[in-house]
Amino acid sequence: MTVITTPPSLAHPSHEGGDLLGIRNLNVYYGESHILRNVDLSIAPGQMVCLIGLNGVGKTTLLKSIIGLLQQRSGSIVLAGADISSQPPHQRARGGIGYVPQGREIIAQLSVRENLLLGLEARPGGISRHRHIDPLVFELFPVLEKFLNRRGGDLSGGQQQQLAIARALLGKPRLLLLDEPTEGIQPSVVLDIQRAVARIIRETGISVLLVEHHASFVRQADWYYAMQKGGVVASGPTSELSKEVIQRFLSV
């Protein structure tokens, strides 16, 4: 099957006033292994973009590079007009990037409330200046308010995922990175998360970069980028996703 590589003229269109995130010619290595190859990607303010591709093609590596956990060998990462390529992760977080990693990484021994308060550390001044939990997170994920005093490790997988997203939101990001947020989660909670993400974008204007395998969630995005062997090989509006592309890049 032939996958058409998207020419530059069909790249994700810039939002009026410029892109929130712009990645150009990004190359990332693990040791001497070349993982990301000349990746170009952009996200406009208030939009949701989805990364699709089979396991091991570089999607998580790209998210880790955006948040600064991995350093690029070449290329640039620009957030709201500022080159953040050399910034450490905590500066990128305080500059407006929220990250929900694959596996959630909530702190099992801390309560739900304590995990949420950690999200405030991403805001300028950190927890010393910010102690208020925005009630929107409880509107999005009511179970968290019910279980505020429960240990994070005692929550179900789906509840932990909701906690991880809520924690990231409390940092007041402009860009939210979600890595496989529905992996291993029961279908009813998958729907809850999909609805919550749609509401986050609609009500806050936050942009979202999503790594996902569920076709229904992918189609909720405005734009997709398909990755293969560390590079972007196709992209376009999700409204035009063909069955061929879905079978090629979303089959597990």
Give a written overview of the molecule:
There is one protein chain. This protein has 252 residues and is of the alpha/beta class. It has a domain at 47-60 and 89-250: Rossmann fold. 30% of the residues lie in helices and 24% in strands. The protein has helices spanning 59-67, 89-94, 112-119, 136-140, 142-146, 157-169, 187-204, 215-218, 243-250; strands at 21-30, 33-43, 48-52, 74-79, 82-83, 97-100, 175-179, 207-211, 223-228, 231-237. The strands form 2 sheets. A 6-stranded mixed beta sheet has the order 6-7-8-3-9-10, with helices on both faces. Helix 3 runs parallel beside helix 6 (157-169). The two termini are 17 Å apart.
Order of helices and strands: EEEHEEHEHHHHEHEHEEH
Give a quick account of the main beta sheet: strands, pairing sense, barrel closure: 6 strands, mixed
Integer average pLDDT: 88
Model regions low in confidence, pLDDT < 50 over at least 5 residues: 1-16
Q: What overall form do the CA principal axes indicate?
A: globular
Strands of the widest sheet, in order across it, are: 6-7-8-3-9-10
What fraction of residues sit in β-strands? 15-25%
Please estimate the helix content.
Answer: 25-40%
Compile the SSE list and pairings.
Elements: E1 21-30, E2 33-43, E3 48-52, H1 59-67, E4 74-79, E5 82-83, H2 89-94, E6 97-100, H3 112-119, H4 136-140, H5 142-146, H6 157-169, E7 175-179, H7 187-204, E8 207-211, H8 215-218, E9 223-228, E10 231-237, H9 243-250
Parallel strand pairs: 3-8, 3-9, 6-7, 7-8
Antiparallel strand pairs: 1-2, 1-4, 4-5, 9-10
